[in-house]
């Protein structure tokens, strides 16, 4: 495992554990660290970063802990992240990850609905878009599909699902589709621009 990917996974898991601990003693960390959209009146500038390290915990105070959100995100971070960090180096990879996360937050603030957002998904969608652009014909197995699918098709399918989910006004799945799309768009633009200009940084 590459060093930045390892550090990000450790940081996310530690914050998730702290969320559970504080929830059990009656203190909701999400009130301060989640990304609250402008409509709620609870937005603070640090939430642009802190929301990337928080995840859904379920209902810890009732003994119901949800591990699936952080589990899927950390698996995706490992799968895409270590290839990109190997290619770009740790510093450049961390730049890319954080810029994608900020782009995801901006998209959710501008277009999203009035609720709080947590999760690394927006930044990870940026990683997925970059991976699909750089390694489009890499084949992967997804879920229960019994045959491998090329990464370019996985990326297109995932983005379309988020697009339809975001455009469906009746959708109440509590998924930050616009954050996902914002992260993917920023990631794709960054990797294309960097490849064409041969820049050594993403800013």
Short description:
By secondary structure, the chain is mainly alpha-helical. It is built from 8 helices and 6 strands.
Please trace the helix and strand order, writing H or E for each element: HHEHEEHHEHEEHH
Task: Please state how the strands of the largest beta sheet are arranged side by side.
Answer: 1-4
Uncertain runs with pLDDT below 50, 5 residues or more? Answer: none
- CA radius of gyration is 17 Å
Task: Please summarize the sheet with the most strands.
Answer: 2 strands, antiparallel
In percent, how helical is the residue content? Answer: 55-70%
SS content category: mainly alpha
Tell me, briefly, the overall form.
Answer: globular
**Overall strand count:** 6
What is the average of the pLDDT values? 91
Number of helices: 8
Report how far the terminal alpha carbons are from each other: 26 Å
Kindly estimate the percentage of residues that lie in beta strands according to DSSP: 5-15%
Can you give a write-up of this model?
There is one protein chain. With 203 residues, the protein is mostly helical. 62% of the residues lie in helices and 6% in strands. It contains eight helices and six strands; from the N terminus they run ααβαββααβαββαα. A hairpin with an 8-residue loop joins strand 5 (139-140) and strand 6 (149-150). The mean pLDDT is 91.
Keywords:
8 helices; globular; 203 residues; mainly alpha; 6 strands; 6% strand
Secondary-structure map:
Blueprint: H1 3-24, H2 30-33, E1 35-36, H3 47-50, E2 58-59, E3 64-65, H4 68-88, H5 90-111, E4 116-117, H6 121-134, E5 139-140, E6 149-150, H7 151-167, H8 177-197
Antiparallel strand pairs: 1-4, 2-3, 5-6
Helix pairs in contact: 1-4, 4-5, 4-6, 5-6, 5-8, 6-7, 6-8, 7-8
């Amino acid at each position: 495992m590459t060093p930045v990917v390892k550090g990000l996974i450790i940081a996310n898991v530690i914050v998730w554990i702290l969320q559970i601990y504080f929830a059990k003693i009656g203190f909701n960390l999400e009130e301060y660290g989640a990304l609250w959209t402008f409509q709620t009146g609870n937005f603070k500038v640090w939430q642009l970063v802190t929301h990337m390290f928080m995840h859904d915990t379920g209902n810890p105070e009732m003994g119901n802990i949800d591990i699936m959100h952080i589990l899927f995100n950390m698996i995706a971070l490992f799968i895409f992240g270590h290839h990109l960090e190997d290619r770009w180096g740790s510093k450049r990879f961390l730049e890319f990850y954080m810029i994608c996360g900020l782009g995801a937050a901006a998209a959710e603030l501008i277009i999203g609905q009035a609720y709080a957002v947590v999760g690394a998904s927006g930044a990870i969608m940026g990683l997925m878009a970059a991976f699909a652009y750089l390694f489009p014909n890499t084949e992967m197995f997804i879920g229960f599909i019994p045959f491998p699918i090329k990464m370019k098709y996985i990326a297109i399918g995932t983005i379309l699902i988020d697009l339809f989910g975001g455009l469906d006004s009746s959708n109440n799945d509590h998924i930050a589709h616009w954050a996902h799309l914002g992260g993917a768009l920023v990631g794709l633009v960054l990797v294309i621009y960097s490849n064409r200009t041969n820049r050594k940084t993403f800013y």
